[in-house]
Amino acid sequence: MDRFISRKRPRVSSPVERQSQSLDDDSTDVKLAMLLSLFPDIEQDTLLDILLSSGGSVEDASSVINAQLAYKPVKKRANGVTAIQTSLTSHITNDTGQPPKKQLTRKGKTLHLFSPEDVAAHTPCTIIHNFLPPEEANALLQELLNESEHFSRYRFQLFDRTVESPHTSCIYVSTPEEFRQQTSEYTYGGTFRSNVRQLTPHLRAVSARVQQAVNDEAQKRMQAFYPGGKKLRYQSPKQWMPNAAFVNCYDGPAESVGYHSDELTYLGPRAIIGSLSLGVEREFRVRQIVADNDDEDSKSDTSPTQATAESPSKRRAAPKGSDSRADAQGQVSIHLPHNSLLVMHAEMQEEWKHAIAPAQTVSPHPLAGNRRINITYRWFRDSLHPRNIPRCRCGFHAVLRCVQRKRENRGKYMWMCYAGYTPGTKGCTFFQWAEFDDDGEPLWEIQSAKDEAPTLRNFVAEEHKQ
Ligand SMILES: O=C(O)CCC(=O)C(=O)O
Ligand SMILES: [Fe+2]
């Protein structure tokens, strides 16, 4: 077990890879999966709390849990799941007899948001309740509940184990040609997806409303929150035009998705995403990513941090003193009722992580029972079609990532071999900084073949052609 905990990413030989691997941490999903495999009897929600409390360190989280397991006998729940206390600071001591040095983000510290005003003020999102006419929402929900029979769990590699996503999903695109591309050219987590289907009538009909609302909300956001009321650097100045929909199904309270930022490879920098929730209400948790040493900075810094076009979230002045790191890492919970549209704005994916937390219980929905359906409408950029993206020596195209934690390179984008970043997979050493113009278009020598080759078609334009 110790070997498992302390095992680092595969050793690298090239300086370039060493550089890229020191740029950022594993995703919370991977860390959570590691903890789950170490403590299979402990609830995922509890493990997530402890992981966050431990500043994202699997090793620290494991020692906290082991300390508690040694400290007093653990109760087994009726369902066989181990009950463990999540509010640990006052109860657990480490080898030095002191409470763990990192601040805890306790359950009581989660800020619960319900109203659109609060969501806009405290997060990089906006929410519209009762988004669709009720009959249209129900028709879409029913259509996708039927579709969900075809959904599957995606798999990812964790050391020598294959782990399954804790919910099912499917990708929807417009045409048979796009279906072909999605299953043979686009990759997710280094593999091709088999669960791709063609857009359904209600998904398509609703996309026009989503397109309109997302563009309206993005404009409002820009005027109210961004420096000088202007778009962010790397944000596209064009209208947001969805051409892919990822649909998730969470069947029952235990189904979830761990903390992550959405992959930017095809969306590009400063992506906007429209996310429609149907069925059972669940909590969407978000937290801001804190750069290494931010707590030290805030101790010496007495002036509020200024927002910049690079980092608009900085308009929230960090609280001072030793609590600053805990506060900045505190979670915010946005409650997502049936028929609500959440817009994740351009500052979200680079600077925040999000999750659907497992719930203790859910209130059944008349049509969906215990299920929640979520649709994220996305705009894949033509310029970031797989055929244009740099390839690594593994034969796949590289993935686009943003440096989120390492202070010296924070906000920079990089192309890298996906496998090289995944524990337990060999991968190659491919790494290059990704360069974009101010509108987020890649700066590279693309062969002109791309002009004739098909790319994904906007859902709304395609509807008008039919
Ligand atoms: O279910 C949700 O609301 C979020 C889903 C999500 O984060 C994703 O599909 O990337
Ligand atoms: Fe996501």
UniProtKB/TrEMBL annotation:
InterPro entries xrefs: AlkB-like, AlkB-like_sf, ALKBH3, CUE, Oxoglu/Fe-dep_dioxygenase_dom, Znf_GRF
Q: Where is this region: Disordered?
A: 1-24, 291-331
Q: Where is the Fe2OG dioxygenase domain?
A: 241-381
Q: Where is the GRF-type domain?
A: 392-437
**Record's keyword terms, sorted:** Metal-binding, Zinc, Zinc-finger
Any GO MF annotation of the entry = zinc ion binding
A single GO BP = DNA alkylation repair
Q: Which Gene3D superfamilies match?
A: Alpha-ketoglutarate-dependent dioxygenase AlkB-like
- Polar residues: bias regions: 301-311
Lineage, top-rank taxon, reads: Eukaryota
List the biased-composition ranges (Basic residues).
Answer: 1-11
Listed CDD domains? CUE
Pfam families xref list: 2OG-FeII_Oxy_2, Zn_ribbon_GRF
Residues in CUE domain copies: 27-70
PROSITE patterns of this UniProt entry? CUE (PS51140), FE2OG_OXY (PS51471), ZF_GRF (PS51999)
Q: Which PANTHER family match?
A: ALPHA-KETOGLUTARATE-DEPENDENT DIOXYGENASE ALKB HOMOLOG 3
What protein name is recorded for this chain? CUE domain protein
Q: Which organism is it from?
A: Aspergillus clavatus (strain ATCC 1007 / CBS 513.65 / DSM 816 / NCTC 3887 / NRRL 1 / QM 1276 / 107)
